[in-house]
Design a protein that fits this description.
mainly alpha, Rhomboid-like fold, 2 domains, 7 helices, globular
Length: 269
């Protein structure tokens, strides 16, 4: 299930440049083929039984708990994570500001690494990917906007508009079930990192959000002028006419669905 878009405005910031900076950083690290074995996080360095002692000691372990966030194994891994971050991250940056948001993101990623080290049955297997940190973003989004409308691509084929609470809640439940049920010999996804990141994001948002940002907000109807909401940051471009915002939203959804489907077919072929 791919998350494609949401229908949720930002209130405090004009442009989520920190969220975009994280996306660009992950993309550059992947395109430049940074050697991930040097920067991946190995849970055994924190594992409760027989932890490893890396040459760099504690600073190296902490550095890897941050650097692993920006590494991805495949294009599909990268695209799936960045799409989710693009959809949910702007509203979390809006809720706490440009300064606290990167701190929040990294802390969620580190919490995911800690959970993986504590619970994994394969502590010697390196972990990479922003999924833990993004799970934290999703956890925060769940507490802030559980009824916001989210467009998802189900089964890589069917676009569906559902409440954010259903999307995030289902993701967390599936991650927890997978973490508990997966055969250690077949594990290829760090499910405990997802669970740990989600838990951290759910807690941190309660203390890191601005005072005027309430929890469990109702859905907020709004228009997003311009292609894929570009008019939100470029005023007077594609200004929607009365009654036209819903139609324009679905036009964008159809275009986006076609593009994502094409990308998925390309990378999975």
């Amino acid at each position: 299930m791919f998350v494609l878009a949401d229908h949720n405005p930002t209130r405090h910031i004009r442009f989520p440049f920190v969220n975009w900076a994280i996306i660009v950083a992950c993309l550059l690290v992947f395109v430049l083929q940074v050697p991930w074995p040097d920067y991946a996080f190995t849970p055994a360095t924190l594992h409760r039984v027989g932890g490893l002692n890396p040459p760099g000691g504690t600073p190296e372990v902490i550095g890897q708990m941050v650097s692993y966030i920006f590494l991805h194994a495949t294009w599909l891994h990268l695209v799936g994570n960045m799409l989710t971050l693009w959809v949910f991250g702007d509203n979390i940056e809006d809720a706490m500001g440009h300064v606290l948001y990167p701190v929040f993101f990294v802390l969620c990623g580190m919490a995911g690494a800690g959970a993986e080290a504590l619970m994994t049955a394969q502590p010697e297997v390196p972990v990479i990917g922003a999924s833990g940190a993004i799970a934290g973003v999703m956890g925060a989004y769940l507490l802030l906007h559980p009824r916001a409308h989210v467009l998802v691509l189900v089964g890589l084929r069917v676009p569906l508009l559902v409440p954010a609470g259903a999307v995030v809640g289902l993701s967390v439940v599936l991650d927890l079930i997978s973490a508990l049920a997966v055969d250690p010999g077949e594990a290829s996804v760090a499910f405990w990192a997802h669970v740990g990141g989600f838990a951290a994001g759910s807690v941190l948002i309660t203390v890191m959000r601005w005072r005027d940002v309430p929890l469990f907000q109702p859905p907020q109807p709004h228009s997003e002028p311009g292609f894929l909401g570009a008019g939100r940051w470029l005023p007077r471009i594609g200004v929607s006419r009365p009654g036209g915002s819903a139609l324009w939203f679905w036009v964008k959804a159809a275009v986006f669905f076609f593009v994502i489907s094409l990308l998925v077919e390309t990378f999975l072929a």
